[in-house]
Amino acid sequence: MKGSIVDAIKDLVTENFGREKWEDILEGSGLSRATLFPVMEDVEDETVLRILESLCKVLQLNLKEAADAFGEYWVTVYMPKVYKAYYRGIDNARDFLLKMDSIHSKVTKNIPNAHPPRFGYRWKNSKTLIMEYKSPRGLMDIFIGLIKGVGKFYKTDLKVSKISDTDVEIKFP
Ligand code: HEM
Questions:
Q1: Which of 18, 47, 52, 62 has the greatest number of C-beta atoms within 10 Å?
Q2: Predicted pLDDT of residue 146
Q3: pTM over 0.85
């Protein structure tokens, strides 16, 4: 995965828990305390997962709590800084989520080795969207955490629930 994912995790941890904790997390995942992750470089998926596991241990969070924290940080803090353009002209959570499939296919088009997740959409009724997560990585908790982050960013009280291994149901107010 892109180094930006780990860079965001690093910022989230250092801003909220301090640099020492971040270095503990690196050490706990078998890396040097000074490891850097350039945003455009590839990081093995396995390394990202080891870092997440170590984060859960060091910060005493379960995977769902860590995924929610990451999702909120990525969508409300990190992305608005790095990829501001993708937010331009979108003023609500529905439209933002509906753009995620094309954004993921575009953002990684010129990046070798990127395998972005893709998304499918189906409206159950005017307030209920079924969003399908298509990725061999199977990071369902992170997918859900990111959707909750979109709700936070647009101050929309949306409810997300997992309805199968690939699908979530999103209820808008
Ligand atoms: C402007 C907002 C966003 C941008 C620019 C963005 C971009 C990216 C990038 C560059 C990656 C790494 C892909 C790779 O290395 O192969 C990624 C991963 C991911 N993104 Fe986003 N993302 C955004 C918001 C979201 C949202 C709102 C969701 C959920 C609805 C989402 C779901 C995911 C998931 C689940 C992954 C992990 C990789 C996987 O499952 O295969 N992203 N995203």
A1: 52
A2: 98
A3: yes
Q: Are 87 and 107 in contact (CB under 8 A)?
A: no
Closest Cα to atom 5, ligand 1: which residue?
A: 83
The pLDDT tens digits for 132-150 are 999 999 999 999 999 999 9
- Say yes or no: 160 and 96 in one domain: yes
The confidence score (pLDDT) of residue 67 equals: 98
Q: What is the pLDDT of residue 91?
A: 96
Residue 86 CA: nearest ligand 1 atom is 1
In a domain, 12, yes or no: yes
In a domain, residue 79? The reply is: no
d(CA 121, CA 133): 9
Q: For the packed helices 45-59 and 19-28, what is the interaxial angle rounded to 10 degrees?
A: 120
Ligand 1, residue 131: give the atom nearest the CA: 30
Minimal-distance CA residue to ligand 1 atom 2 = 79
- Separation of CA 34 and ligand 1 centre (Å): 26
Cα distance from N-terminal residue to C-terminal residue, the chain? 34
User: Is the residue at 19 inside a domain?
Assistant: yes
